[in-house]
Design goal:
GO cellular component, one term: nucleus
Keywords: Coiled coil, RNA-binding
Strand content: 25-35%
Family: Belongs to the RRM HNRPC family. RALY subfamily.
InterPro entries: Nucleotide-bd_a/b_plait_sf (IPR012677), RBD_domain_sf (IPR035979), RRM_dom (IPR000504), RRM_HNRPC/RALY_subfam (IPR051186)
Protein name: RRM domain-containing protein
Distance between the termini: 33 Å
Largest sheet: 4 strands, antiparallel
Oligomer: single chain
Number of strands: 6
């Protein structure tokens, strides 16, 4: 046990605060990129409370909208596993 807090897989809450603090990550090569990779990349913008990875895309759920906006601004078009991300808040 490393002491790392495991983030939830829940990113689909519909309350307005959750919606505004969630980041969509598109064009993701999920055959290569895993949940832990996403968390490492996006953790620098704030506390992640949820991360869900799907075929070709992922969602990261932050505590605050400010964190989500910073992540979108900082990571839009970043190249991961040879593909540019498509981030949309």
């Amino acid at each position: 046990m490393t002491g790392k807090i495991q983030t939830s897989n829940v990113t689909n809450k519909n309350d307005p605060r959750s919606l505004n603090s969630r980041v969509f990550i598109g064009n993701l090569n999920t055959a290569i990129v895993k949940k832990t990779d996403i968390e490492v990349i996006f953790a620098k913008y704030g506390r992640i409370v949820g991360c869900s990875v799907h075929k070709g895309f992922a969602f990261v759920q932050y505590i605050s909208e400010r964190n989500a906006r910073a992540a979108v601004a900082g990571e839009n078009a970043r190249i991961i596993a040879g593909q540019p991300l498509g981030n949309h808040g």
